[in-house]
Write a structure and sequence with these properties.
CATH topology of the largest domain: Rossmann fold
Order of helices and strands: HEHEEHEEEHEEEEHEEHEHH
Largest sheet: 4 strands, mixed
Structural class: alpha+beta
Strand content: 25-35%
CATH superfamily of the largest domain: ANL, N-terminal domain
Low-confidence stretches: 261-266
Shape: globular
Number of domains: 2
Number of helices: 8
Length: 266
Amino acid sequence: MFIAELQHPEFEKFSFPALRTGIMAGSPCPIEVMKQVVERMGAREITIAYGQTESSPVITQTRTDDPIELRVSTVGRALPNVEVKIADPATGAEMPRGKQGELCTRGFIVMKGYYNLPEATAKAIDDEGWLHTGDLATMDERGYCKITGRLKDMIIRGGENIYPREIEEFLYTYPKVADVQVVGVPDLKYGEEVMAWVKLKDGYSATSEELRDFCRGKIAHYKIPRYVKFVSEFPMTVTGKIQKYKMREVAIEELGLDAAAHVATA
């Protein structure tokens, strides 16, 4: 929603003298978008809330008096009476501060379970009552969390773990890019390759090689998208959630990767 508002062709004709605060939530907010909302829309006390339907729904949130760098780069701290930990996805052990793992939460906000789905509930909530969000994150010494990606979205290319969120945040800094989503697609040699779906700002044009040139020397070579698809919209749910699995399905069909997909999943 904020991206669409910022890209409105008549945006500069509007002013927002009464806009002071608000909440960004629902899907990950790129740092560059948050900065623009603060600077161009004047919402200097806007906060970010993070959570899930299963957590009623907010787990962490920034505060209006947090320094601006924390409000644009983190999802804040746990709400009162809510526990948050970063856990090793493989063992469940709590990770040291600053180390990436799965964000888990416990407290009054956590659901009782999925209706008539005991197995799914057991997968989501462990024996100690921790809800496993499926989101990768880090937590600093002050308790501020940064969401770094989704466990299921992680790309494994030639043995290297690649987190789409990192590449997306970088590509948002390219002046022509309005929005971007990164997915992994099957590859016979490396197992998976990186693909970027890119929405350009109105009136701009770009090529795949131009985007890759922007990446060279700034991010690791194996994180540079092999495939780039320019689009006007992304597959989304009715509630506005990006459907990355559909992006992957479209890419496999359009790029003729069926054979690679068979090998990758065999």
